[in-house]
Amino acid sequence: MKTYSFIILLILILSDTSEGQVPDSLKYKSLRPAEFQLTYQKAEKPVLIDVREFFEYRKSRLKDAVNIPSSGHLESASDSIDKNSDLFFYCTSGFRSKRVAKFFYEKGFTKVYSLDGGIIVWKKAGMEIVKKRIRR
């Protein structure tokens, strides 16, 4: 009987703490590689943004991506990008791009996407990567 009561109490506590929270998926869409690419290709005003540091970006990146590091000038970048643009963010594993996607959503962008699993999953899916090194 104690175990049953404990389980019910645990369920009530967990359900109570989750009320009022807004899932990130309502702010931006986290997409797997094929869906990310298809959505990007169909977008009217797509902007592909690599949020990794420059030393990561220069080694390999997605074609047509611009580099805006998540540790850098996100505020000025959000002021210079058209709010009607479709923003596609990616990083190494998806962690930084989700954080940046949320930031841009909160700045008033409504078409915001993050590559779920980042460039690691992109490579595993056999998707195209640009490996030509660039200099600063």
Question: How do the strands and helices of this protein lay out in sequence?
Answer:
Blueprint: H1 2-18, E1 29-31, H2 33-42, E2 46-50, H3 54-57, E3 66-67, H4 74-80, E4 86-90, H5 95-106, E5 112-115, H6 118-124
Parallel strand pairs: 1-5, 2-3, 2-4, 4-5
Features:
Oxidized Rhodanese, domain 1, single chain, alpha/beta, five-stranded parallel β-sheet, 6 helices, 14% strand
Overview of the molecule:
The protein is built from 6 helices and 5 strands; from the N terminus they run H-E-H-E-H-E-H-E-H-E-H. The chain is of the alpha/beta class and 136 residues long. The chain has a single domain, classed as Rhodanese-like domain (Oxidized Rhodanese, domain 1). It is globular, with a radius of gyration of 18 Å. It starts with a helix and ends in a 12-residue tail after the last helix. About 8% of the residues have low confidence.
The CATH H-level homologous superfamily: Rhodanese-like domain
Total individual domains: 1
Indicate the CATH class.
Alpha Beta
CATH architecture: 3-Layer(aba) Sandwich
CATH topology name, in short, is: Oxidized Rhodanese, domain 1
| Helix percentage | 40-55%
Strand count, sense and barrel status of the largest sheet are:
5 strands, parallel
Distance between the termini: 67 Å
Structural class computed from helices and strand pairing: alpha/beta
Compact description:
Helices cover 42% and strands 14% of the residues. With 136 residues, it is α/β, with parallel strands linked by helices. The chain has one domain: Rhodanese-like domain (Oxidized Rhodanese, domain 1, 3-Layer(aba) Sandwich).
